[in-house]
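Exercise 7. Given the encoded structure of a 308-residue chain, write a plausible sequence.
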């Protein structure tokens, strides 16, 4: 008599199908909404510094904010993460591309699509804004992509970021409101704040020192050493604001100069903690010192626009 014996083997579990498309939340994480604030703030400062009213220009302002933040800045984040995917696999392997949540070449496709949409919105906002958008997009790609890859140079990379995040966004805000080129005074002040933002960008390099060393990126913390790079960042931020204060006072914007002096004094008070342990306190200083820095930008814009 035959007896059937029940098998103890479990049925094979089918292999998980590889993801073909990224999920919307992963795309949003790739575009890094937290990074949109600085260019959007700079755009607002540009609009204020123009001295022009909002009557009849609300749609232009809304489009400019969209262009400066989610579009051009978001594009730069996608481009950066695509070309930095090997570095991120060391420093931050849970990011969308190295983790596989943005599969295949989708990171590149998203960057290209975002670039085209950004250019289209810039075109709708007028010729000056269109040209500014193209310049911003060109820098976004050149910063991360070969053959330029400006970020590989610890001095040039932060400078490009500062000029685009702060200066170009400020310029775009003023141009949108005026429908023309901003005044010379506005251009000089936005340029100085762009130079100061070089120091802000250096603060972002402290979290990636080990990965930068392994992949050959010559960030300032790698080249100078962490403490010296922190001192350099502080001096850069402070020096630019000292020039801004002098220019505002010279041009008769005394109250703006006084406010910028106050926020600079508060930044200087916070800098010793940053210099003491840059790797630990760079995020803290980004929250405290950089906030004071951008408040000074607004005070300058209010003076230039004739509001204070």
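Solution.
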């Amino acid at each position: 008599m035959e007896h059937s014996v029940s098998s103890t083997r479990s049925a094979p579990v089918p292999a998980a199908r590889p993801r073909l498309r990224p999920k919307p939340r992963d795309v949003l994480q790739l575009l890094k909404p937290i990074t949109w604030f600085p260019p959007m703030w700079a755009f607002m400062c540009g609009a204020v510094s123009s001295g022009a009213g909002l009557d009849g220009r609300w749609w232009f302002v809304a489009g400019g904010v969209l262009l400066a933040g989610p579009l051009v800045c978001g594009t730069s984040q996608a481009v950066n993460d695509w070309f930095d995917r090997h570095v991120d696999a060391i420093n931050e392997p849970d990011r969308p591309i190295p983790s596989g949540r943005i599969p295949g070449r989708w990171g590149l496709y998203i960057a290209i699509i975002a670039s085209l949409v950004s250019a289209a919105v810039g075109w709708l906002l007028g010729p000056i804004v269109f040209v500014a958008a193209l310049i911003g997009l060109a820098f976004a790609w050149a910063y991360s992509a070969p053959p330029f890859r400006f970020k590989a140079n610890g001095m040039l990379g932060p400078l490009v970021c500062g000029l685009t995040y702060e200066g170009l966004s400020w310029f775009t805000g003023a141009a949108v409101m005026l429908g023309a080129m901003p005044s010379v005074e506005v251009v000089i002040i936005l340029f100085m704040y762009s130079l100061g933002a070089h120091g802000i960008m250096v603060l972002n390099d402290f979290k990636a020192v080990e990965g930068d060393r392994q992949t050959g990126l010559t960030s300032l913390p790698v080249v100078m050493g962490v403490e010296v790079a922190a001192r350099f960042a502080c001096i850069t931020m402070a020096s630019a604001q000292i020039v801004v204060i002098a220019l505002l006072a010279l041009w008769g914007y005394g109250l703006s100069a006084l406010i910028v002096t106050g926020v600079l004094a508060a930044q200087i008070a916070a800098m010793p903690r940053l210099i003491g342990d840059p790797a630990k306190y760079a995020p803290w200083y980004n929250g405290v010192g950089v906030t004071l820095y951008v408040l000074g930008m607004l005070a300058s814009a209010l003076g230039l626009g004739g509001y204070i």
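Remark. Residues 183-307 form a domain with the Four Helix Bundle (Hemerythrin (Met), subunit A) fold (CATH 1.20.120). Students should compare their own answers with the one above.
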